[in-house]
Design goal:
The complex is a heterodimer of chains A (122) and B (294). Chain A is mainly alpha-helical and 122 residues long. Chain A is built from 5 helices and 3 strands, in the order αβααββαα. Chain A has a 3-stranded antiparallel β-sheet with strand order 1-3-2, with helices on one face. In chain A, strand 2 and strand 3 form a beta hairpin. Chain B has 2 domains: 214 residues, Rossmann fold, CATH 3.40.50; 68 residues. Classes of the chains: A mainly alpha (122), B alpha/beta (294).
């Protein structure tokens, strides 16, 4: 929860990713309470509506769930679900960009694969 | 839910139209940012919204009641003006303590506990005369008045102008704290746009006396993109899109684009598509290359 906000991405996306990262790194454990939107808003000096937007994305994806009157909690299986989601987006988020940059430099797919194989040996 | 509604507000000073037919609705429970260049009419607009200055034409209504010299309405509004050492005829000789005491009698919901807290936090010497205060201290006094007024609608004109960067960050923290605890509506004008951007739920851009735009800040940020690359590729990518600003350098071209609903810039390795920050969007909309001469 202590990452720094940047301008590269929407703030609500960063709030979402920060909570996800904390779950992946066991900073936040399953069935544990996460900070409220007001607490997040105060911590980052952002509008509570923006913080709520990020948190609600995680509720929609069942990473977090609400306990009425108590707050927001990390769902059971949240860590596994985040990893699955990120795997599903891995091609769009990383591979496509890699291919585009390789394409503009004239690096062939074969050369790319060689690079990947070599890096594994490191 | 309260609402402050301005309709057709015009303000003229001699032959100069400072505000031209301004329609503006402010809902309760939001933090608004009012941005505009020097002379755009920000202070005039804020003072008309709070009955400190009569409009030449048009109306300002709070929950159906006219604002002008209406004490029933004005108890819910606070306009904390930018102070300077020469404010008024003799305010400059007034001590901070006296200034705050007058403010306390003026605003029925005044919070003296908060006043004490903030005076301590800002390390403000209340025995000093207004005329002896530094720019930063003057800003602190206006901030204290705004917060402690506890008015439902609170307007701050350039509250951070004199503050150093640490105090400015602290101001926005305090603003979010007060907002989350009370749900009061705040309207903040500022030239230091980037520092405020994340706090503002909606941004109102005033340009040459007219409201150019009023929109959810995050929505505006999401639909504003900068496209750059070879002129031909940029022209192809931006065809049919609303371009607010262009820059050229040799064969290279950059454009700032405001996307409408459903529009998207086709991704391609030939162009760079970047997010804009609020300050850059503001410059693209109100900058000199946009046909303004000042």
């Amino acid at each position: 929860m202590n990452e720094i906000l940047t301008q590269q991405k929407s703030i609500y996306i960063q709030i979402r990713e920060m909570i996800e990262n904390d779950i992946l790194r066991d900073v936040l454990l399953e069935e544990e309470r996460v900070p409220s939107t007001n607490e997040l808003a105060k911590l980052y000096a952002i509008n509570p509506a923006t913080a709520a937007k990020g948190v609600n994305l995680l509720v929609d994806e069942e990473i977090l769930y609400k306990r009425r009157g108590i707050g927001m909690f990390v769902a059971k299986g949240a860590k596994r679900r985040i990893m699955e989601q990120r795997k599903a987006h891995f091609y769009d988020d990383y591979v496509k960009k890699l291919l585009a940059e390789a394409g503009s430099l004239g690096i062939t797919k074969k050369e790319l694969i060689t690079m990947i194989e070599q890096s594994r040996e490191d | 839910m309260s609402e402050l509604v301005a309709k057709g507000v015009v303000k003229t000073y001699g032959h100069k139209n400072v505000l031209q037919d301004v329609d503006l609705t402010l809902e309760s429970g939001k933090i608004y940012g009012l941005i505009g260049r020097n002379g755009a009419g920000k202070t005039t607009l804020l003072s008309i919204l709070t009955s400190q200055n009569p409009a030449s034409a048009g109306s300002v209504v709070f929950d159906g009641q006219p604002v002008w010299e209406n004490p029933e309405v004005l108890r819910h509004l606070c306009f904390s003006r930018e102070l300077n050492q020469m404010t008024g005829n003799n305010a400059n000789a007034m001590k901070v303590k006296e200034y705050l005491r007058i403010a306390a009698t003026f605003f029925p919901y005044w919070d003296s506990e908060m006043e004490e807290q903030l005076v301590r936090e800002f390390d403000l010497d209340v025995k000093k005369k207004i005329s002896k205060l530094s720019k930063g201290m003057l800003s602190m006094v206006t901030i204290i008045v705004a917060f402690c007024s506890k008015a439902e609608f609170t307007f701050l004109d350039e509250p951070v102008a004199g503050l150093d960067v640490v105090a400015r960050e602290r101001f926005y923290e305090l603003l979010v704290e007060e907002y989350t605890e009370t749900g009061r509506t705040f309207v903040v004008s500022t030239h230091i746009i980037e520092e405020a951007a994340e706090v503002l739920e909606e941004v109102i851009i005033l340009d040459q006396g007219k409201i150019l735009l009023k929109e959810n800040t995050q929505d505006l940020l999401e639909r504003s993109v900068h496209i750059s690359g070879h002129e031909d590729d940029v022209n192809k990518a931006a065809a049919g899109l609303h371009i607010c600003r262009e820059e050229h350098m040799g064969r290279s071209k950059g454009v700032t684009v405001l996307l409408e609903k459903g529009q998207k810039v086709p991704e391609s390795a030939d162009i760079t598509i970047q997010r804009m920050n609020l300050q850059k969007i503001f410059v693209a909309l109100c900058g000199e290359e946009h046909g303004h001469d000042r």
